Amino acid sequence: MDILLSTLHLEDLENINLADFDDFWTKSILENELSSPTSTYLVAKQKDEILGFAGLKFLLDEAHITNIVVRKDKRNLKIGSALLEALINKAKENSTLITLEVNEQNSPAIHLYQKYNFQIVGTRKKYYNNKFDAYIMTKYFN
Ligand SMILES: CC(C)(COP(=O)(O)OP(=O)(O)OC[C@H]1O[C@@H](n2cnc3c(N)ncnc32)[C@H](O)[C@@H]1OP(=O)(O)O)[C@@H](O)C(=O)NCCC(=O)NCCS
């Protein structure tokens, strides 16, 4: 599969129908994120089609994954893996760790992070809809 990774820009939002990805993000959250000087977003494209995107927010020496999402009809094709690998490489440039919260029920995502040696280092109780716990998953560099 011929996937190209590049920086996600505000102009790209016109070409994203968020309903094709997941129910979590709105355009305005994404606009804020893309305008933030402490965030970096990547997009996975096949020709001009957007198949996935992912973001990092930098806080002191930590890189936080804000989201990684692949179009519903393009999952299980290693696009998530390619995005995560690129985020890890970006984070390594100036952070000591990369971390995120993931819903304890989200086995595809947990599997993806474990594949890249993220460890479950803690839990946030009832973090999602006051119902499901979040795992805090972290990968330390060095
Ligand atoms: C999580 C997500 C980004 C993975 O993207 P993807 O492109 O389908 O992932 P990949 O094809 O790179 O697969 C990565 C690994 O996860 C595994 N995986 C994929 N779907 C799985 C599932 N339903 N259950 C268990 N493992 C799964 C794959 O087998 C692969 O492991 P392998 O290489 O050992 O076979 C995608 O499912 C998604 O967009 N989910 C909705 C958004 C989301 O929940 N994001 C995470 C927020 S923390």
Give me the number of helical elements: 3
Alpha-carbon distance between the termini?
32 Å
Assign the structural class, choosing from mainly alpha, mainly beta, alpha/beta, alpha+beta, or little secondary structure: alpha+beta
Give the CATH superfamily: Gcn5-related N-acetyltransferase (GNAT)
CATH architecture: 3-Layer(aba) Sandwich
Strand order of the largest sheet: 1-2-3-4-5-7-6
- Strand residues, percent: 35-45%
What is the count of β-strands?
A: 7
List bound small molecules: coenzyme A
Q: What is the N-to-C succession of helices and strands? A: EHEEEHEHEE
Using only C-alpha atoms, the radius of gyration works out to 15 Å
Topology:
Elements: E1 4-7, H1 27-35, E2 39-46, E3 49-59, E4 62-70, H2 79-94, E5 97-103, H3 107-115, E6 119-128, E7 132-140
Parallel strand pairs: 4-5
Antiparallel strand pairs: 1-2, 2-3, 3-4, 5-7, 6-7
The structure holds coenzyme A.
What does this structure look like?
This protein has a single domain (4-140), classed as 3-Layer(aba) Sandwich (Aminopeptidase), CATH 3.40.630. Helix content is 24%, strand content 41%. Strand 6 (119-128) and strand 7 (132-140) form a beta hairpin. The protein contains three helices and seven strands; from the N terminus they run E-H-E-E-E-H-E-H-E-E. It is globular, with a radius of gyration of 15 Å. Strands 1-2-3-4-5-7-6 form a seven-stranded mixed β-sheet, sandwiched between helices. The longest helix is centred in the middle third of the chain and has 16 residues, at 79-94. It is an alpha+beta fold. It starts with a strand and ends with a strand. The site of coenzyme A has 21 residues, from strand 4, helix 2, strand 5 and helix 3.
